Amino acid sequence: MAFDGITVAAVTQELRDSLTGGRITKIAQPETDELLLTIKTPDGACRLYISASASLPLIYLTDENKPSPMTAPNFCMLLRKHIGNGRITKVSQPGLERIIHLDIEHLDELGDLCKKKLIIEIMGKHSNIIFCDENNRIIDSIKHVNAQMSSVREVLPGREYFIPDTMAKLDPLTVDEDDFIQALKSKPAPLGKSVYTSFTGVSPVVAEEICALAGLESGMTPQDLSSDMLSHLYRQFSYYMENVRTGSFHPTVYYVKNAPKEFCAIPLSHFSRETAKEYHSMSQVLRTYYATKNTLTRIRQKSTDLRHVVQTALERNRKKYDLQSRQLKDTENRDKYKVYGELINIYGYSLPAGSKELTALNYYTDQEITIPLDPTMTPQENSQKYFARYNKQKRTFEALTELIRETADDIQYLESISNALDIAMNEADLAQIKEELMQSGYIRRKFTKKKVKLTSRPMHYISSDGYHMYVGKNNLQNDELTFSFASGNDWWFHAKGAPGSHVIVKSRGDELPDHTFEEAGRLAAYYSRNRGSDKVEIDYVEKKHVKKPNGAKPGFVVYYTNYSLVIDSDISDIENVQD
């Protein structure tokens, strides 16, 4: 669900109840577009997480802390100067806009009471955190927006703050029936789209819910509806918005196969078939729904440089592989020149001088062939020419065969690193992948006095039968798991023919139950390039049968006897242990 005005209204109510009267004791800026405020309230200290990320803007209360940079950014220092130890006097939302105002009182250098506003705009790529004085004059913002970036509004120090009205939408909390019907009739669009494009803060999911409550198909057009039906739709719309006006929120997450599919501040009747779980607060819903997504988004942003290194090397090696393959194809007829040379040696003595061709019986195929000759050369010289061509192409074939194998190994290795970047969960994982790229020579190592400590660890799961299963996040961990951690009778799993993680199941010397084999196979499928497929072929074998060739790249192994299974990549039912 989009972070719409109704979700913001639920968050605003929660912040109003929790933070009003609280004192800001700490201000941190963990990322360039994030703030983390620690606020002391009569009920204890809490943290307010605010993100103005273009891809995932968020605001919610949390107990978790985040590491901050050694040197605080300028915006963070400005806030510390002005509202450090300030008191939050009011939390409000203008209309049903995706905006939250924090009114803050503080004492200036002279001890005089001053008022400031911290304005959080949760508006997709236009999200921002804006710091204003009591006259709505912008002091600074976490993102600066100049005239070249936006023709609608500049967000710069000294400019006046205002909410741009670019969509000309109506306020759903105050609209009357006539304006409601007129707004819908003016839109030549399906009913659901007409609702969410006509009213501030209404998302497509909420528009679908209102249509469902009225018993109307969202694909109909307002022009298809009678006046009575439109009046009925307005009444359902008003009943729904009454929950927002009175703050009657019931934060809920809907699950499909234990994976969160949708969330809402007010229950959705058209999701009644899905598994619903109600939470105590909207912050808890947002943390639950967005925690993993937010982490992965951040990690993907931070892995951009590593991805560029890997992708560039992959493209270079794939081009090299194509060129080598074409060159190898040119050597396919090398044996023909050997036959030519032999036949000329056998039958060339009878050729008259200046002959341009030789027709002879090819004793390999028992068929006659015609061999082109250079009339300026003797038969012996022609034979030597063909033998020289054969030997050259033979040497080329042998060299290219080895080069192609090496290039294919490099491609396979780089694809495994690309897969490791896809499943990286934190900065420690990225640090280990970077170390691997340096060891492999893809990144030049910088010699510094400070040594980076690698703290990334394999993922840990427990099967439904109680067996511990471990998943390597990258090639270094794969080697460590397989050849240092696992014992001979433990079981080893890997997706067949695809880059992916090594999965180790600690057998404890037992014969594993079938269900544990299936769950380990699902882990191997999920943490491979074939994630999301319904049918992934998995190789599995006791660890003692897995070998590492001398000089092989990290993560590369061989095995000559194995079992196979075909399984899906759904791991939602497997217990993940947070070590």
Description:
The structure is a single chain. The protein has 579 residues and is α+β, with helices and mostly antiparallel strands. Strand 7 and strand 8 form a beta hairpin. The relative contact order is 0.06. It starts with a helix and ends with a strand. Helix 8 packs antiparallel against helix 10. It has a seven-stranded antiparallel β-sheet with strand order 20-19-17-18-16-15-21.
Keywords:
7-stranded antiparallel β-sheet; alpha+beta; elongated; 579 residues
Question: What is the compact description of this entry?
Answer:
It contains 13 helices and 21 strands.
Q: Are there runs of 5+ residues with pLDDT below 50, and where?
A: none
Backbone shape: elongated
Helix content: 25-40%
Number of helices: 13
Distance between the ends: 31 Å
Q: Largest beta sheet: what is the strand line-up?
A: 20-19-17-18-16-15-21
Structural class: alpha+beta
Mean pLDDT: 91
Strand content: 15-25%
- Rg over C-alpha atoms, rounded to the nearest angstrom: 34 Å
Sheet with the most strands, sense and barrel status: 7 strands, antiparallel
Oligomer classification = single chain
Number of strands: 21
List the helices and strands and how they pair.
Layout: H1 5-19, E1 23-28, E2 34-41, E3 44-51, E4 58-62, H2 74-83, E5 87-92, E6 99-107, E7 113-121, E8 128-133, E9 138-141, H3 177-185, H4 191-198, H5 204-213, H6 227-246, E10 252-256, E11 259-264, E12 275-278, H7 282-302, H8 304-329, H9 334-347, E13 357-362, E14 367-372, H10 379-423, H11 427-439, E15 459-462, E16 468-471, H12 475-485, E17 491-495, E18 503-505, H13 514-526, E19 536-542, E20 563-567, E21 575-577
Antiparallel strand pairs: 1-2, 2-3, 3-4, 5-6, 6-7, 7-8, 8-9, 10-11, 10-12, 13-14, 15-16, 15-21, 16-18, 17-18, 17-19, 19-20
